[in-house]
Amino acid sequence: MRSRFDAVAATHAVRELAERVSEPLAWRTVTARLIGVEPGLVLHGGGNTSVKAKATTLFGEAIDVLHVKGSGWDLATIEPEGHPAVRLGPLRELRRLDGMTDEAMVNELRTNLLDASAPNPSVETLLHALLPARFVDHTHADAILALANQPDGERIFKSIFGAGLVWVPYVMPGFALAKRCAEAFEAVAGQATPVVMVLEKHGLFTWGETARESYERTIDAVTRAESYAAQHRRTIDGWPGAATSGSAGLKPGGSAGLGSGGSAELRPGASAGVGPAGLSGEPAARRGEASVELRAERSPAEKARVLAALRGVLARLQDDAPERGPIVRTRSSEAVDGLLARPDARKLVERGCMTPDHVLRTKPTALLLPEPALDDATKFASQLEAAVGKYARGYDAYFEQMCRAKGVVKKRLDPWPRVILLPGLGACAIADSAREADVALDIYEHTAAVMQVAADVGSYEPCSASDLFDVEYWSLEQAKLRAVSRLPLARCCVVVTGAGGGIGLATADRFLRAGAHVCLVDRDADALASAMQSIRAGGDSSHRLMACAADVRDAGAVQAAFAQTVGAWGGVDVVVSNAGAAPEGRLETEPGQQALRESLEINCMSHVSVVGAAVAIMTAQGGGGCLAFNASKAALNPGPGFGPYAVAKTALVALMRQLAVDLGARGIRSNAVNADRVRTRLFEGGVLESRAAARGLSTDEYFRSNLLGREVTAGDVADAFVYLATARATTGCIVTVDGGNSAAFPR
Q1: 3-class SS at 250?
Q2: Number of neighbours of residue 410 by Cβ within 10 angstroms
Q3: Whether the model pTM is above 0.70
Q4: Which of 170, 225, 249, 571 lies 20 to 30 Å (CA to CA) from residue 651?
């Protein structure tokens, strides 16, 4: 692993940060970010860092403090505020106690914060406090874990680091671990200079009098572990992947900044990088393993069929509400595919997490379905239902067994897998959101690489089920995943056509704000890009947002857009079929008749293509669905010279009603919104002026000419579509959003 430390860039970053915080805290922030951007060291909020410094009280007294990573902060983007200051003296006094509950420890940490509004200090704060060095770094480096999960890990690390190794047999994080580490450090210090601390089955601690020294000791320790693994793997030369070079760094404020000008010495054999990149790209047969043909990439349509069936099974087993389901993300990589190709794959998978810190993200183990019938949807669904059911029963048995053995009473967490491994497809992560699913996939991809390296070096033997249970049901660990009130359309996947502007864009925005995952479809790529930017500006919801450029008159493009949506999130629950045009013409004329043909194509037949793609997915999921069409009051109250539009919209309303009849038995609802006189692109090109003149009104009067005397907005129409997505007992219905037009009342 190469050092990312660049002295010039680091010094510049420290100068900028030191304008508002102390220099030690500025250095702590800079090198913490360097650790955080390296996925081979920490993932998604993992690891913790600290610095011991001075602070001044309100009385002007200088006191010793520990700046330590706070809960909820990610090292990659951490700000100085992410290392809250805790009084160091009282923390070190706690060592005199024989024991302490977790709750008492957290209370001591909070009551010794200098800022009462600061985040909770890391659960490993006491460990940082009891180590004498000024800067301390704690990581869960892949290379370290591949060796720390060996049954003879202590022997291996002694051969790497010699007498300076501080080896700590596995102890659950907290007060006991902090005392054990301090004792182990002091025992080594009595005979040699401690150089590194390795926690069995857990991770790495390094330290130094400067931030750079501690950071580069981390890089050096990981590089040595990489070299050992490369030299001792039985089947492959080298570590999976390649060392990362290039600039990654971080500027003050969390943006990119510090480059990778390597100053740490690389040891022999260290050119191969740490990471989840797989097994040097070599087929399994070349490694002396099971001969497995390298699979061909599945088409988006094939992948969509599999994922829709998978999501449907999971939704049924989890007793999700109709038209809802977990978000399913997939990943295929050399690390994942390499694991699935191994003859010992099941044994490795069932041994569980590479570090207990990951148990809440991935559950104790993933679910491996060894021979999924990916080409037979019915058989695959049956296989999956049986496998997931068996997994859940196994989890229940594990929970009951652990509670009995430990004499504790706990509230059982859900028993469903977080990661499902499907040979021929890859790893599938199941979560409430795409972001959470990606976290699980990132973690499991690294786990897959560590499992393989560990097995090839010796034996992969991570924490026992008993130890994993302690962490999984540890109140301090569960606090990392804060309970969040679920929005009304959470776990709902929505496709909106014609979403480049107007009603479509407003509707997509409303669904996003209601918690849905939303795909915007439009034929105008530029309008689509602008729409995506405008929605993103409203908040941090990029993981729930995607766009597909497609002309809904092209059935193939429609199928591709739906396959892309399912490939991203696992399924589709709600479709707002909104795309359309507003042609004018008199039907007794040839131009009017040609306009009608074109209008029927865009305003009716394109909706049929959308329905075909959507219903196939909804049927595969088996959880119902919602089809909502943007019709028009013109379907009930046509205007003069507007026949091409009115006739096609009338046909669309008839289509909606027919679908309600035909699809009700599958739980798929079909409804429409009849809007009128909304300022959208439909009125461009003189259409607005023409329609206003046909009614004898000015353009402003035209928009306000309704019973309520108010202009109807795109947001009003969007609200109606969101309502229909939640109205589970409603089908075959027309909702009017026109400000009131008695001639267009549905009847």
Answers
A1: strand
A2: 13
A3: yes
A4: 571
